[in-house]
Specification:
heterodimer; A: 292 residues; mainly alpha; ABC transporter involved in vitamin B12 uptake, BtuC; two-stranded antiparallel ribbon; 11 helices; 2 strands; 72% helix; globular; B: 247 residues; alpha/beta; Rossmann fold; six-stranded mixed β-sheet; four-stranded antiparallel β-sheet; 39% helix
């Protein structure tokens, strides 16, 4: 077995897991799946690249500015493309179309601003993309940091759901009307979740940039594989998303190495299809038909 | 009965979509009173509670609570004013623990650690089973335990008025006693209660006042003892024909 392939799989899987978690953050209180999430990751990467290379901001300032901007974009999306639909009917599904529309609008606008050329982004000091030889595996210090940070971030997000506000989000996810009767305002929690989920997507773009390059074509690929990770890991389950992200990353890496890079997408979606056929609720979900 | 009642519902019409359910409903709940709302299934009892708690907007009429107008207010503002609704079926957060459910009961309320602990303490004294089961998911409790948790969750907020919708539904007789005792002890602590209860006789025993709802209208109201002895109650449970025969 080729250990380099394993390393590639873990790195790509980390990014898919992060996208999947950003989906879940939005999904929990709203039951809305934001199809613009991939483009938000892309905007995060492009904004960060420009802030660093054009504006010359320090890493941490560019990082904070990117998170704030992408979070705001996602909040605006909620206000104009999601809230009006849920206001009419809480179970409405027209957000499938409206969030897809937002995705296309962002993709178009960003294409006009930045053009198609990818921008090289350097990792923050002292990390670098130079390959190290760790026990026979070629991997850069930045990639090692990315995998560790991903696990730590998912643990942090799960901690946040242990706070009272986090528990309230889970309460809204379980029974929105019951939450209303306890004085919880689902609209307010929904807006916060869109802001934070957007910022999380922006952050994913920042950490992906040194590996994938910042490019306007990042969005669709991350949307699809992040979505796959969220579905395989059970929608709304962040630990599931983390593990499923790695399953998909590793499948992709080994599929490319063992068969041919041309088949890697097909292999991923065969695995996704197989999992969802056997367990429609994902690997880590409770069966939805459980009764008392 | 000269001072303004704690809750005053005046000439309220309400319903769902194009369906009218309540017509010209008026009802008062006095401070520290237990008021029973009785009537057959489908009479509009739950709809009235849902209208008072802001889940449905009234089409017409006024709802005043503790001096403030609440008609059309948002549910979280109504809860914030001290008016709590424990819905039929209890509607607990089944995937969260007993303790988490209690904590959610005080959502949005600024409490000191000491005050939070004091309220939990009081609840555990009233319902010791909730201490025993504190780490379990609410969904794993029995029906009676869930009802106690639902009442306890509302008590976390120290409400002025508690609306209980069918608290004894599906409970064993011994548990019905326990729940009704808890309701009486809440009143002793100064909480007013608006009670919808299918065990009409039991409800009228502990209530001060009662209202009889039929087809979305109040057809009788007065002291609970008089309602229990009166004709309106029988008419309401026998249906249209009984009422028509009396009229």
């Amino acid at each position: 077995m080729d250990l380099d392939t394993l390393a590639h799989g873990l790195v790509a899987g980390s990014l898919y897991a992060l996208v999947a978690v950003s989906f879940n953050i939005l999904y929990r209180p709203s039951n809305v799946f934001n199809f613009a999430q991939g483009e938000l990751v892309m905007v995060g990467a492009m904004t960060f690249a420009s802030a660093m290379s054009v504006a010359g901001m320090p890493w941490i300032v560019a990082f904070a500015a990117t998170l704030a901007l992408v979070g705001m974009i996602c909040l605006v999306e909620e206000r104009i493309a999601v809230a009006p639909i849920l206001k009419r009917a809480q179970t409405g599904t027209a957000w499938v179309i409206t969030t897809l529309a937002v995705s296309l609008i962002i993709s178009n606008l960003v294409g006009r601003i930045w053009g198609p050329d990818p921008i090289l982004v350097k990792p923050p000091e002292p990390l670098s993309m130079d390959s190290l030889n760790v026990a026979g595996v070629r991997i850069s210090s930045y990639e090692v940091a990315l995998v560790i940070c991903t696990v730590a971030l998912v643990a942090m997000v799960e901690r946040a759901y242990q706070t009272l506000q986090g528990k309230a989000v889970m309460a809204v996810a379980e029974d929105r009307e019951a939450a209303l009767m306890r004085g919880i305002d689902p609209g307010r929690l929904g807006r916060w979740s869109f802001f934070i989920g957007g910022a999380f997507a922006g952050m994913t773009g920042v950490v992906a940039a040194p590996i994938l390059y910042a490019s306007t074509s990042l969005g669709p690929d991350l949307l699809l594989k992040g979505f796959a990770a969220a579905a395989v890991g059970s929608i709304g389950n962040n630990r599931g998303a983390l593990i499923a992200g790695y399953i998909i990353g590793l499948t992709e890496a080994f599929g490319a190495a063992l068969l041919s890079p041309g088949y890697q997408e097909a292999v991923i979606f065969l695995v996704v299809l197989g999992v969802l056929l056997l367990r429609p609720e994902g690997l880590f979900g409770r069966p939805s038909a459980r009764t008392v | 009965m000269s001072e303004a009642p704690l809750l005053s519902v005046r000439a309220v019409d309400a319903g769902y979509g194009h369906v009218d359910v309540l017509e010209n409903v008026s009802l008062d709940v006095g401070d520290r009173k237990i008021v029973a709302l009785v009537g057959r299934n489908g009479a509009g009892k739950s709809t009235l509670l849902r209208t008072i708690s802001g889940l449905i907007r009234p089409r017409r009429g006024q709802i005043a609570f503790a001096g403030a107008n609440l008609a059309g207010a948002r549910p979280d503002a109504i809860v914030g004013a001290g008016l709590l609704h424990v819905a039929e079926g209890r509607r607990l957060f089944r995937r969260q623990t007993v303790d988490d459910n209690l904590e959610l009961g005080r959502y949005g309320l600024r409490l000191t650690q000491a005050e939070h602990a004091r309220r939990i303490e009081r609840i555990h004294a009233l319902f010791p089973i909730l201490r025993e089961k504190r780490g379990l998911h609410a969904g794993s409790l029995s029906g009676g335990q869930q009802q106690m948790l639902a009442i306890a969750q509302a008590m976390m907020r120290a409400p002025k008025l508690l609306m209980l919708d069918e608290p004894s539904l599906g409970l064993a007789p011994v548990l019905v006693d326990q729940v009704l005792d808890a309701i009486a002890s809440l009143r002793a602590e100064g909480v007013a209660i608006l009670l919808v209860e299918q065990m009409v006789e039991r409800a009228l025993e502990i209530a001060d006042d009662a209202y009889v709802l039929q087809n979305g209208r109040i057809i009788a109201s007065g002291p609970a003892r008089e309602i229990a002895a009166g004709d309106a109650l029988r008419a309401a449970y026998m249906g249209e024909h009984g009422a028509a025969a009396r009229a």
